[in-house]
Specification:
Layout: H1 9-35, H2 37-44, H3 48-102, H4 106-138, H5 143-166, H6 171-190, H7 208-217, H8 222-252, H9 256-285, H10 287-307, H11 311-325, H12 328-336, H13 343-372, H14 374-390
Helix pairs in contact: 1-3, 1-4, 1-5, 1-6, 2-3, 3-4, 3-6, 3-7, 3-13, 4-13, 5-9, 5-12, 7-13, 8-9, 8-11, 8-12, 8-13, 8-14, 9-10, 9-11, 10-11, 10-14, 12-13, 13-14
């Protein structure tokens, strides 16, 4: 990236706050959609199979967006790329609202979700690339904190969604209001994010085709795939908990729906807290040690969740599971971005592997659970988390870079 990481403190602070806001907006948008799924189902009078079709469309578009992100960054840079993707996901969110209430149409909602998914997928990589660049500039591990702000956004979005549903505010009004807020925030953040081109910091300016070649080169590097294993295991752990933990407590541990929701809350709070405080821990002990300790913690938590003879121990397992799964994804992103010249390409490639697991893994677990039971299915996640721990050595900073987390 042709960008000087020695940035004036005031500019660096503004850039950092802008990217915090972008992470928050992404979380807000995703939770807005998720919170209104029941209302969308009722308004369109559709069944779970149709909801599955919508989720498949959004997931597919997200993966395409992830895969295209490095190409977009190579063409126009992350500054304009993030603005464009935030506008796209806002347009998608508004279209979902239109297709739900203003002009009811499953096809319109699917089109909205495709725009929404592509925009969020591509934005995810680019905001992580900028977060990693800021991390290098400040010389501290702060990418987990950026991901904590994403979590804050999901909490805000879920809360607003619950309030809107409780007040019987239609999806159209709610979605359009959130979309407008994201557009306004996008332009405010745009003013404080520096324009950055992709290429070696000390090289002569290159054409976008050369930058595109660099963008695609990460798929030829073995380290990309090993980091992908790190992120895949932790993505399975996070996605599996989000989709199946409440059901596991409610049915398999016979705790009922309310305690199922409580267990998922315990998991989410534990994950968010560690993301807030995790940066200094990584700077103290290094990425590799931190990832291995967290892999052990997640493994212990999931096993306790599966085998616990009583509900209090199930909740302890949920907390350990959340702690263990908290930093794998952000630290994988951080490791992929060690070399600024290839940050977008490597983050895009590694994130694609992780997100395929995050989006596709839980449904696969659901199919398997129909045959062997949900708790037994969770042993698959245990195996993947163990593999993530063994692969963690790939997160060691590259020689000659200013990557954080020794």
């Amino acid at each position: 990236m042709r960008v000087n990481t020695v940035v004036a403190p005031s500019r660096l602070l503004a850039w950092r706050l802008a990217v915090f806001a972008i992470f928050t907006a992404s979380g807000l948008s995703i939770a807005t959609w998720a919170a209104r799924v029941p209302s969308i189902k009722t308004a369109l009078d559709i069944d779970n199979s149709a909801i599955g079709l919508l989720l498949l469309g959004m997931g597919t578009a997200s993966i395409i967006g992830l895969s295209c992100s490095s190409v977009i960054a190579a063409r126009i840079g992350t500054r304009r790329g993030m603005l464009a993707m935030m506008l796209m996901l806002a347009a998608g969110l508004a279209t979902i609202g239109v297709g739900t209430d203003a002009a009811p149409s499953l096809t319109l909602v699917l089109i909205g979700l495709a725009l929404f998914g592509f925009g969020n997928g591509a934005l995810d990589v680019m905001m992580n690339v900028d977060g990693a660049a800021i991390e290098v500039a400040v010389g501290k591990t702060i990418l987990p904190l950026f991901h904590a702000f994403f979590s804050f956004g999901t909490v805000i979005g879920a809360g607003l969604g619950a309030a809107a549903a409780g007040a019987r505010i239609d999806v159209f009004s709610h979605a359009v209001a959130v979309a407008i807020s994201i557009v306004v925030l996008a332009f405010i953040a745009f003013a404080f994010v520096p324009q950055r081109d992709f290429g070696a910091p000390d090289a002569a300016p290159s054409g976008w085709r050369e930058r595109l070649s660099t963008a695609l080169s990460a798929w030829r590097e073995p380290r990309t795939y090993v980091l992908g294993v790190v992120m895949l295991g932790m993505a399975f752990a996070e996605g599996g908990a989000n989709d199946w933990m409440a059901l596991g407590v409610s049915e398999d541990h016979e705790g009922g729906p309310a305690l199922g929701a409580v267990a998922l809350t315990v998991f989410s709070v534990a994950m968010t807290v560690v993301r807030v405080i995790g940066g200094p821990l990584v700077d103290r002990f290094g990425r590799v040690v931190t990832l291995r300790v967290l892999a052990v913690t997640a493994t212990a938590g999931i096993l306790l969740f599966i085998l616990a003879p009583n509900l209090p121990l199930v909740f302890v397992g949920a907390a350990l599971w959340g702690i263990g799964a908290s930093l794998g994804f952000p630290l994988g992103m951080s490791a992929a971005a060690d070399d600024p010249a290839k940050a977008a390409a490597r983050v895009s490639a590694a994130a694609t592997i992780g997100y395929v697991a995050f989006l596709c893994g839980p449904p696969v677990l659901g199919v398997i659970s129909d045959h062997i039971g949900l708790l037994n299915t969770l042993y698959i996640i245990v195996a993947l988390v163990v593999a993530s721990g063994f692969a963690s050595g790939a997160a060691k900073p590259l020689p000659g870079t200013r990557g954080t987390g020794h």
